[in-house]
Prior knowledge:
Layout: H1 25-52, H2 56-66, E1 73-74, H3 75-82, H4 86-98, E2 102-107, E3 110-118, H5 120-144, H6 147-156
Antiparallel strand pairs: 1-3, 2-3
Amino acid sequence: MALSTEDPDDQSGCPSARGGGVLPDELRAWMLLLAATGSVEQRLRSAVKENLGISHDEFLILCLLAEHPRDGVRMTRVADLLGRPKTRLTYQIACLQHAGLVTRKPVRDDRRGVEVALTDKARDQLRETSTLLARTVREALADTMGDTQRAALCSLVPDLAGEAS
């Protein structure tokens, strides 16, 4: 199920994209958005593995940490933000720590709490690959939706607004 051109009547990749089908507009739109994000995720998985040598889920952790202060984020907060079980996150953080990409330290005043932060190595790798990875996302979106649809998506996700043109 893929989005195609600017013209909503020319979305032959999805039989229900023309409307008048069984699905209500909201569900149809959701399914089309999932198709677009699935395409992006598939390409990004390959690019991340090839360029950073880590899994897509580990990459998402690095991206989340990159958007937070250098002193770290509580692991429970990372789990909540990513919608990951804490046990799975603990394993992924251990892999990232072994690769020298994150550090873990106890939370002051809370014996059970753990904070995780990016290392300088991780920040450097993200800086070096961010343009390539952004291009991967842009190309995947271009293949799954037209200019009008991409602009609409960017209006929903303000950080993408500069990438729409």
